[in-house]
Amino acid sequence: MRKVPPAANPGAYVASLSGWQRSCVEKLRAAILRAGALDEVIKWGNIVYFANGPVALIRAEETRVLFGFWRGKRLTGIEPVLKPSGKYEMATIQLGEGAAIHAAKLTRLVRAARALNEKLGDPTKSAPKRKAPVKRAKSARRPVGRGK
Predict the structure, then answer these.
(1) Could you say which of 3.40.50.1970, 3.90.400.10, 3.90.1150.200, 3.40.50.11190 is the CATH number of the domain covering 10-119?
(2) 56: part of which helix (H) or strand (E)?
(3) Fewer CB within 10 Å, N side or C side of the chain?
């Protein structure tokens, strides 16, 4: 894949697309913008929406469009199609050509994701929780086969 410079703004990102990818991204943007106050920027080469940290992203690729949420693992009750991946609590919906987009559900997802950021803070500032190492109790017995 050839490296191209990122789009100057979200409008330019959409304008650079064609066909079903452009139509899909336009529908996603419309549903997201109905969700309320979010900052829409180009970040990491994608369209990213911020409210107290990153909330959602749109990434158009050759064979799919990804619609992702930084706290998406917490949103699977609203949309079970969300597929967990990456660090933080990221989960994405993969849309292909002809995929049905339910605008009301997408808007609901974005509102829920924004509410999580308002409640829990910026997801990139809180490191993902890792399992604590298991501590093993020291044995009070003497090793077998050593001296007296």
Answers:
(1) 3.90.1150.200
(2) strand 54-60
(3) C
Model confidence pLDDT, tens digit, residues 87-107: 779 999 999 999 988 999 999
SS3 state of residue 95: strand
User: Could you say which DSSP state residue 64 is in?
Assistant: -
Cα 120 from Cα 35, distance rounded (Å): 19
Locus of tokens 């949420």: 69
Residue the block writes with tokens 């369209």: 47
Nearest of 88, 7, 2 to residue 46 by alpha carbon: 7
Tokens of 66: 């990804």
Neighbouring CB atoms inside 10 A of 75's CB total: 20
Q: Pick from 40, 35, 81, 75: which is nearest to 57 by CA?
A: 40
pTM, two decimal places: 0.80
The secondary structure of residue 72, as a DSSP letter, is G
Res 2: pLDDT = 47
